[in-house]
Amino acid sequence: MMITESLLEGMRLVASTSATNSTETQLYMTVQPDGLYAYVGSTPPQVYFSKSVNKNKTGKDATEVTFMNGSLSISVQSKQPDESHTSIQLPAANSTQYMRLESDGHLRLYEWSNADAKWAVVSDVIKLFPDDCAFPTVCGEYGICTGGQCVCPLQNNSSSSYFKPVDERKPNLGCVSLTPISCQEMQHHQLLTLTDVSYFDAGHIVVNATNGEDCKQACLKNCSCRAVMFRYGQNDSDGTCLWVTRVFSLQSIQPEIVHYNSSAYLKVQLSPSTSASNANKKKVMLGATLGAITILVLLVIAVILYVRRKKKYQELDEELDFDQIPGMTVRYTFENLRECTGDFSKKLGGGGFGTVFEGKIGEERVAVKRLEGARQGKKEFLAEVETIGSIEHINLVRLIGFCAEKSERLLVYEYVPRGSLDRWIYYRHNNAPLDWCTRHRIILDIAKGLCYLHEECRRIIAHLDIKPQNILLDENFNAKVADFGLSKLIDRDQSKVMTMMRGTPGYLAPEWLTSQITEKVDVYSFGVVVMEVICGRKNIDISLPEESVQLIKLLQKKAEDNQFIDLIDNHSEDMVFTPRGSSSIVEACNVVPAK
């Protein structure tokens, strides 16, 4: 039983303040000729969700959104036989259901629970991502959402503050400008730069602004503009300028995950006195600078001598560090490795603070990892040399040698010909699917490598970055654990160890929330990798329907319904059609904790 609801073209569904307060908010949904849209009110309104229907619509056709059992259907009511429609899948109704647009912008599906005698949420219909950062009011106006946490904007590389929280104890209420924008004093407008910050609405495009500077100037010339977001791919001279007249919640992004770059420029008001003060300061600074030139010239020689001496001592300290590493492997010169890799010409892959190149030392093929940035990579470099150089196991990548010359840090590994596991289970390189026997052996190999690290070394070695990209396959598809750049040594009398969060999102165990971890965090990551091997997909894949985006949550549901078989990768026939193989796969699934 359910409540059937329809929304016709031109009608609005407006969110109320709460279930008991019918006061309307600025959030609403409406049906337009090409589909269903959700807006937050401003001039013009800003869209934060859309679901379009593909159709050839005539003037007499009408678009309708209907809430039916198991779906939210968007259709064109036409006299033509080829009626167009699309839908959003919902949980099937077990009892009475209804849908409500709520004050936070979420469209939630409720169902009556006879057992608890109350309404319960069974679906967050338009939520596409794990956190709420894509919703326009999650952090109020001007608030920046990062992983569900809200902060006020702060100029890049500056302690200057132009915003303050509406309520210090409630950061989700947003931020306000310390000085309101005044159109009578446009000469005192300035743009606050925020890198790696995006915005939910991509609908307001400034046409003739394809680079960041033009985008900023267009906003400064129009007082109604309160912010612009410049979004681009690899080239910042060719992007899209997004214009807003009212700034709602912004969100932090990781360019390597979303595959685009974005900077936000927020308009702020400088008071005339501040501007005059800044001008006077510039004059004073100019005079002081001219007066100091003579002194600086006299100090140059002393500075150069100091830097040279400091550099000499740093190099000596670093040489001592590497000379004192126990179980020293072969040490190569930088020129040796440049020559053996053909001047680093054949790239095998990247990640883990560096890039990996193919090389040849004598008759042996090797993989040379060149760390990028000695200051950033020294700690990770030492961890890898100390850890891998002192252990040897058939399921761990063997470290042959290293190089440490001035700022250059390189590691020489055995060459593993078939590359990393992700190439074979994500189907990005047109590789043939792996059969279940091979996958099962790979899973066991990873487990053997981790078991050695955790139980058979003098000190427990926690890898801390187990993922398919760090599992390499030899010519016979034997698996080897690689990349110990983030590893942590744990004394066997320690129950837990404190360390900062590290690793890769999607593979991090819940213990990381407290930063008190054990080697069991590797076991959690291993479980995620096992499911990826069995299912032939990434743990988090936003290209899939909402209910399937997170593999582990999907696993929990399938475990409750005893439907593990639905998760098996259907690219490989022996995994799907062989009864013995299927039972073995289900047994492997049962090893992975589902809750």
UniProtKB/TrEMBL annotation:
It is a single-pass type I membrane protein. It comes from the Eukaryota. Residues 342-595 form the Protein kinase domain. This is non-specific serine/threonine protein kinase. Pfam families: PAN_2, Pkinase, S_locus_glycop. It is found in: Membrane. ATP binds at residue 369. The keyword Oxidoreductase does not apply. Residues 183-270 form the Apple domain. It catalyses: L-seryl-[protein] + ATP = O-phospho-L-seryl-[protein] + ADP + H(+); L-threonyl-[protein] + ATP = O-phospho-L-threonyl-[protein] + ADP + H(+). The chain crosses the membrane at residues 284-307.
